Structures are given as C-alpha cells and as structure tokens.
Amino acid sequence: MAIWLNKDSKVIVQGMTGATGMKHTKLMLGDGTNVVGGVNPRKAGQTVDFDGTEVPVFGTVKEAIEKTGANVSVIFVPEKFTKDAVVEAIDAEIPLAVVITEGIAVHDTASFWAYAGKKGNKTRIIGPNCPGIITPGQSNVGIIPGDITKPGRIGLVSKSGTLTYQMMYELRDIGFSTAVGIGGDPIIGTTHIDALAAFQEDPETELIVMIGEIGGDAEERAAAFIKDNVTKPVVGYVAGFTAPEGKTMGHAGAIVSGSSGTAQAKKEALEAAGVKVGKTPTETAKLAREILSA
C-alpha cells in the first residue's frame, strides 16, 4: 500500500523538455516511474528519447490526460510561469500535481491554492518548493533520490528536502511506505495534517515520521491533530533549534518572530501530543527504530 502514488500512477511532466525536466524525467524513469508524457505547447507532437524509452510531448495537460490517462503531473516550470502551469493542471482536473519549482512568489502560490479550492479541490497540490513524493519500489515523482531506501513500514512527511533524504537513508534498512516532501514555503498545498491523516488510514504504514522546522504554526496544528486523530506512533524532528530570531533560515517560511514558531515551542507541542521528538535527525531515526523493534 501507499498514499497518493503507486505503481499504477501515470505521470506527466510539465516542463519535461527543459534541462531540469529532462534530467529528472530520466531519473524518474530509472526508478520505475510510469512517465507517459510531457507538456510543452511549443513542442507538441514531438517525442523525447530517454535511453530507448520514447516519451511523447503534448500541447496541454488536458490533451495529455485524454491521450494517456495520466493522473499525476510533476511541474518543473520556471517560477514566473509556474502559476499558469498549476492552474492548467487544476483546470484539467488532474488528481495530483507535484510542484517542484522554488522561488515562486507567495502571491502566486496563494492564487493557485485558492483557485484549486474554488474548483472543488479536485487536484491535490504538493509543494511548491518541495522534493516531491516517492513510494519506493513503485513510483518516484520529483527529485528524491530513488536509491537511498526500500519499501517498508514507515510513512514520512517533511518540510525539508535534505532532511527527507537523510531520514530515508538513516532508516533504509526498515524502508518506507511513502515519503512526502511538502515544502517549506509560507503557503503550501498539502500539509503535515493531510499526510498524517493519509498515513493513519494506510494499513501498511506502522509508524509515521514527521519533520518540521521553525516558523509558522504548522507543527503545533499537526500536534493537535495527532492528539485527536492519530493512533499510530509518531516520531518527530524540528529543524532550527539554533536559529537566531528574526532571520530567515533556508526556506521562506522558516523565520522565527519573538516566541512564535520556535523549535522549542514546536517540540513541546508535539511531545504533549505523545510524539517522541529527537534532538537530531539521527536521534529521531533511533527513536523510530526503537518503537518498531519493541
């Protein structure tokens, strides 16, 4: 089992013919992802050869869905064009759109997020500024390295791309049902809570690892959700204990203002909800390992 992505997922790549799109389409295909097409209106009708795998290019997302039955789009479009690309995916009612692009204006993200809601939330958005989603051994959509783990019993949801990779590697002997990088921008589509709810319902996920970071109140809200709705064990890590107040750290959303959004406050909220919180990624992995071996 898995959440949102599996071996039957049919993936299109918006921006496939650009340098980044080409690079990661090749890697996704190498991980077994069923990439059925790319989207570029200027190159519609062409095909791209990825080491013997011919992938057609379509003019629109709607056409790609009609011709291939695609149900996932991964977006590698430059930031100034990303809003239009996401809106196109929403209009085509593709079930899942994974937005890898970073540096998108918050106003643009707010706009396409609100547009998805106006259209009935038929498209789940993951990102932007995220590494994507991987169900090891089945499908990999985004930029997560496909060779650092294996299928297993842990569900992972993370704001940080780098920490996603580290946690997957630390627990590679146990493996993951699905790992989701939700991104660290101030406004994102899929949240910690969305992933926690999905992992709670997934019969193959036995333990959930949640990685947060300073800034905002997403982790506190997730803690409240865990307390009321999640019966599976959850292990957490919050990045940014040593971050100075008022300074943006890496992600646009990772900024502490006064006592709001500190790592310590998030750690305390999670622990109050019964989540075991590690002080480092390695300690967090150790806590997960101890729970699963108990």
Can you tell me about this structure?
By secondary structure, the chain is an alpha/beta fold. It has 2 domains: 11-126, NAD(P)-binding Rossmann-like Domain (Rossmann fold, 3-Layer(aba) Sandwich); 148-293, Succinyl-CoA synthetase domains (Rossmann fold), CATH 3.40.50.261. Helices cover 34% and strands 23% of the residues. The chain is built from 9 helices and 14 strands. The strands form 2 sheets. A 7-stranded mixed sheet has the order 3-4-2-1-5-6-7, sandwiched between helices. The chain has a 7-stranded mixed sheet with strand order 9-8-11-10-12-13-14, with helices on both faces.
Which helices and strands appear, and what pairs or packs with what?
Blueprint: E1 11-14, H1 19-30, E2 35-39, E3 47-50, E4 53-58, H2 61-68, E5 72-75, H3 79-91, E6 96-99, H4 106-118, E7 124-126, E8 132-135, E9 139-142, E10 151-158, H5 161-170, E11 176-181, H6 192-201, E12 207-213, H7 218-229, E13 234-239, H8 263-272, E14 276-278, H9 281-293
Helix pairs in contact: 3-4, 5-9, 6-7, 7-8
Keywords: Ligase, Nucleotide-binding, Tricarboxylic acid cycle
GO molecular function: nucleotide binding; succinate-CoA ligase (ADP-forming) activity; succinate-CoA ligase (GDP-forming) activity
Family: Belongs to the succinate/malate CoA ligase alpha subunit family.
